[in-house]
Structure formats: structure tokens, C-alpha cells
Amino acid sequence: MLHIVNKSHGERASLASCLRLAQDGASLLLIEDGIYAATAASAAASGIAAAAGRLKVYVLQPDVDARGMSGKLLEGVTAVDYAGFVELVTQHPTNQSWL
Fold first, then answer.
1. Residue 71 class from Cβ within 10 Å (0-12 exposed, 13-18 middle, 19+ buried)?
2. Which domain range does residue 87 map to?
3. Distances in Å between the alpha carbon of 63 and those of 20, 58, 60, 93?
4. How many domains, in total, are found in the chain?
5. Contact, 30 vs 59, CB < 8 A?
6. Is the full-model pTM beyond 0.85?
7. What's the pLDDT tens digit per position in 19-29?
8. Nearest Cα to 31, choosing from 77, 76, 62, 73?
């Protein structure tokens, strides 16, 4: 399953709910303000650091660039472009957007 989170972990509890319910081996794509959770400075507080071993974590690179967070991502987080976003969706027949 592909989980998609677009809100900051400081703004909403969407990411926390996602991390609690996502099964091992699932993929997580952080977009828009959700990318802040994958920065080295926020990874522990957001729960991404603990989840990175059991989930495949991706961020949308254009959103990372737009927010000035390039070079600040947690190790092990994979950045994808829009084509990569589409590829993730096609690879996962089920997905959940967390609002």
C-alpha cells in the first residue's frame, strides 16, 4: 500500500495516524508540507526516524526544493520527481491519502 501525507506533522495528526496504522513494508510518500517530517531536524519528532526501518519513505523532490529543504533530508529517504510519483501510484494498486 502507498500512503500519501501532505500536511506537516506539526499542523495535523495525519502522519502520526498513518505511521500507527501502516503495515511493515508499506510505502509512504510525503508531499507538500508533509516533506518537513523527513528532514533530519524533524525526523525524530515526526516519527519518521523510527518508521524508516519498516516503511519505504519517499518525498516529492519539487516540494523539497520549493521549501528550501534540499540536503536536509533524513538518510534513507528517497526523493522522487512527478514521474516517480506516478510510478509509485502504479506500483501500488491501493493507496491512502491522509488528510
1. exposed
2. 2-98
3. 24, 12, 6, 24
4. 1
5. yes
6. yes
7. 999 999 999 99
8. 62
